[in-house]
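Open question from group meeting: does this chain pack into something compact, or does most of it stay loose? Before anyone orders reagents, we agreed to write out a predicted structure and look at it together. Recording both the input and the output here so the notebook holds the full record.
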Amino acid sequence: MKILCWIGSAVDALWVLALVWPRLFTILTGNIAMAGDLSVRLIAGIAASMMAGWTVLLAWAAQNPVERRAVMLFTAIPVLTGLFSVSLIGNIFGQCGGAIWILVKTAGLFSAMLWGYFTANKIVKEDAYEIHS
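Structure tokens returned:
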């Protein structure tokens, strides 16, 4: 679960950089919209700020993932479901340069985060059972 949180944090850090530097965003998504549009870059800056916060939150959760398991749940729902939905819409309307890999990555991280959350819950319940036995 620690590794899972660190992977999530690293992926988020990559997207922070991509949202700040349009060239990296274009490389990752195939979408050149951020290159010259100030309003899009400002929106991306807001998204980068939020993503930076989530990067730190996942790094914090990695320090004690069982106790901080809710972070994994909140990462899966709503964060990853939202990112998946936006990426799906972008792919459907041809705005992601066919970056299907983003959908696969998001779905994989969603599944992994849910696994981490439910596994942590199981550990907590087993520990509680042992204490009361």
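Observations to bring back to the group:
DSSP finds five helices and no strands in the chain.
Residues 68 and 95 are 36 Å apart (CA to CA).
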